[in-house]
Write a structure and sequence with these properties.
The complex is a heterodimer of chains A (319) and B (316).
Chain A lengths: L1 H25 L6 H5 L10 E8 L14 E5 L2 E2 L4 E3 L6 E7 L8 H13 L6 E7 L3 E3 L7 H10 L9 H12 L7 E6 L27 H11 L2 E7 L6 H9 L4 E4 L5 H13 L2 E5 L8 E8 L5 E3 L3 E3 L5
Parallel strand pairs in A: 5-6, 5-8, 8-9, 9-10
Antiparallel strand pairs in A: 1-11, 1-13, 2-3, 2-12, 4-11, 6-7, 12-14
Chain B lengths: L6 H13 L3 H8 L3 E8 L14 E5 L2 E3 L1 E6 L3 E8 L2 H9 L3 H4 L4 H6 L11 E7 L3 E3 L7 H10 L14 H12 L5 E8 L10 H11 L1 E8 L14 H11 L4 E4 L4 H10 L2 H8 L2 E5 L8 E8 L5 E3 L3 E3 L1
Parallel strand pairs in B: 5-6, 5-8, 8-9, 9-10
Antiparallel strand pairs in B: 1-11, 1-13, 2-3, 2-12, 4-11, 6-7, 12-14
């Protein structure tokens, strides 16, 4: 009788709790699913992670090399690898689309590029879409949900303004800072038209500088190196991606392609996705955290192949 | 053991759940009728007054319904929102003499967009949409209070309006907080429609607003599309027009970038929209089935050359 009374008193509370909390308790976080099932590398382990692309003389990806085929040098000194993988890697990325006025002729091809990239996403991949022009706008969703990503591409691309490329790049890196594993930013742009476009376009509305100084190439490079964020550039016909940005892309270990008026967008994007998926992962623990910038060199013993990867890292505990 | 004992916890659960809800919300949920706010315009776009119950016909899923006409000129609960994002700044500043906006950019230009047309019984909250939603604390009929809060919204630092423009997310949040409010509920929005950085889609917002009976009424920054012209690029105002149409709201064009219309438009402000809302009709009907699903809704008026603004769906 006593137990029946306890049940009678407790049951309503339990049922009400289950009703109110059920959906939250039942919801499974999906954002880090890939890292949970395939924890090759986490950014906070003290390991320096390097993602490398290897291509043969014919320009095709070389994906069958083993750990013994590589040497990694830190400031010219051979390091002992603690991590190696040549398995396909999930992609955590931001796609930044240039919506400046000069992109008018390329508008539909930019959208097509975005949609094709979304179409290449596989299980575990996550993508955030951002735009820059009159505003810099990074969507809060970092997701593998194609429907949601395509909705953003259909509903949220608006032409206008100049090219706040560096501010957008800075915000893209920052938006991935809390993510573990590999972080990639893909920029689709026709480049910076002139010196004024190198500044943050919205600064004209901020004459008192309340938002702070606009980030420039040095600021973005520093943050990219610190976080190990890899940049890829897709250039559209226009002023052209300037040398400063292309040098930055190379520094991060990423790559650069051009899309002309008659280029097959699908083929270019598919190749980019393929490259991202088939990069090698190397990891090592630095001997000294001296707070300095260290050069990284990767060699392969396989004849005729070239290796592309980040060129430096910051030997810092805050890395 | 009593045969009734399993019913005790269920009864307690039910009454606990009911007791946690505000009275208005509880009554609304227990009520089986559907409220339908309707605006009727003549061929010149002017509101039509004096219509009788028998002149309305409600169609739910295409089927005529028995309806009641509750009242004309209902009291209004409204949230007034201004899009203060960077794209609005460029439009708002473009046609102004430099002294009109000075160093403050968008703030002075849009701040002048008046709230004329509010009547004493109206309950308002005012807000601004930038990268976040800023909203005054509570609904109030105290004009002094909401006017003060209105001006406070334009003191936000640039970091709040340099992007993104989370228009749909902000509207979704506002609809959610307005849903339990009684009476006629409406959102008044000033925007150019260039929404970016949203988790919610335009369709999400339309369905959310229409299903709970909140109309979204828009003062659109920009020019109406020219008949017969072919646009090379997406029209950001199209989403705003669809939003108003499908939630039973109205929209008007406002061009703050034109020196010719700037003074006129900002002086009118939201007046035309408020005027329409105050001259709308409230109908109710009782659906034949209560299945918790969305159903299509339409209202016809037995007069010629009139246009009816009504939400396109309801939840039974």
């Amino acid at each position: 009788m006593a137990s029946a009374l306890v049940w009678a008193l407790a049951a309503p509370v339990l049922i009400l709790f289950a009703i109110l909390a059920g959906p939250r308790l039942g919801a499974q976080p999906t954002s880090n699913r890939y890292q949970q099932v395939n924890p090759i590398y986490r950014a906070d382990t003290g390991i320096v992670a390097i993602y490398a692309t290897v291509v043969g003389r014919d320009g095709r990806l070389v994906t069958d090399l083993s750990k013994d085929d590589f040497q990694v040098l830190d400031n010219g000194v051979l390091v002992q690898l603690s991590t190696f993988s040549n398995e396909p890697q999930a992609i955590t990325s931001v796609m930044l689309l240039d919506m400046s006025t000069s992109m008018a002729d390329a508008f539909e091809r930019v959208r097509e590029t975005g949609k094709r990239f979304v179409g290449t996403l596989q299980t575990g991949d996550r993508l955030r879409i951002g735009t820059f022009g009159g505003e810099v706008s990074l969507n809060p969703l970092l997701t593998s949900n194609r429907e949601k990503l395509l909705r953003i591409l259909d509903e949220e691309l608006w032409l206008g303004g100049s090219t706040p490329l560096w501010r957008a790049s800075m915000q893209a890196i920052e938006s991935l800072q809390s993510e573990t594993g590999r972080r990639v930013v893909v920029v689709a742009s026709d480049g910076i038209g002139g010196p004024s476009d190198a500044d943050c376009a919205p600064q004209v509305f901020d004459p008192h500088g309340a938002i702070g100084p606009c980030p420039g190439p040095a600021d973005v490079r520093q943050l990219a190196i610190r976080t190990g964020t890899m940049f890829y550039a897709i250039g559209f016909a226009g002023p052209g991606l300037n040398q400063s940005f292309l040098a930055f892309v190379e520094q991060t270990g990423g790559g650069h392609v051009e899309i002309g008026r008659t280029t097959n967008v699908a083929a270019i994007v598919d190749r980019l996705a393929e490259e991202l998926r088939h990069q090698y992962l190397f990891g090592f623990i630095p001997n000294r955290l001296d707070g300095r910038l260290h050069t990284l060199t990767i060699r392969s013993s396989r004849p005729g192949v070239s290796v592309r990867a980040r060129k430096s890292y910051l030997a810092d505990v805050k890395r | 053991m009593s045969p009734f004992w399993p019913g005790i916890p269920l009864a307690i659960t039910f009454w606990l759940a009911i007791a946690c809800l505000p009275v208005e919300q509880t009554l609304a949920r227990l009520s089986s009728s559907v409220r339908v706010d309707v605006m009727v315009e003549d061929e010149n776009g002017e509101p039509v007054s004096g219509l009788r119950r028998e002149e309305f016909q409600i169609l739910a899923d295409g089927e005529p319904q028995q309806s009641e006409l509750l009242a004309e000129s209902p009291a209004l609960t409204a949230v007034v929102l201004v899009d203060i994002s960077a794209s609005m700044a460029s439009i708002a500043n473009a046609g102004l003499p430099s002294s009109a906006h000075g160093s403050a950019g968008i703030t002075e230009a849009v701040e002048e967009f008046t709230l004329k047309g509010v009547v004493p019984n109206d309950r308002l909250r005012v807000g601004a949409i930038g990268r976040r939603l800023f909203l005054s604390e509570q609904f109030t009929s105290n004009e002094e209070l909401w006017r003060k809060e209105w001006h406070e919204l334009f003191r936000l630092p640039p970091v709040e309006w340099l992007g993104p423009s989370r228009l749909w997310d902000a509207l979704s949040s506002v609809i959610e907080l307005m849903a339990p409010e009684p009476g006629q509920r409406a959102i008044l929005l000033l925007s150019d429609g260039r929404a970016t950085g949203n988790e919610a889609s335009l369709r999400d917002v339309i369905d959310q607003a229409a299903s709970v009976g909140i109309s979204v009424n828009v003062s659109i920054h920009g020019e109406p599309p020219q008949v017969g012209s072919v646009r090379r690029f997406p029209d950001p105002t199209e989403g705003l027009r669809t939003l108003a149409d499908e939630t039973g709201g109205v929209y008007f064009w406002t061009n703050l970038s034109s020196p010719e219309t700037y003074s006129m438009d900002r002086t009118k402000g939201f007046q035309r929209i408020l005027d329409r809302l105050h001259r709308s009709y409230t109908l109710t009907f009782t659906p034949t089935q209560h299945d918790g699903r969305t159903h299509t809704l339409d209202v016809r008026v037995k007069r010629t050359k009139v246009a009816v603004k009504v939400r396109r769906m309801y939840i039974a």
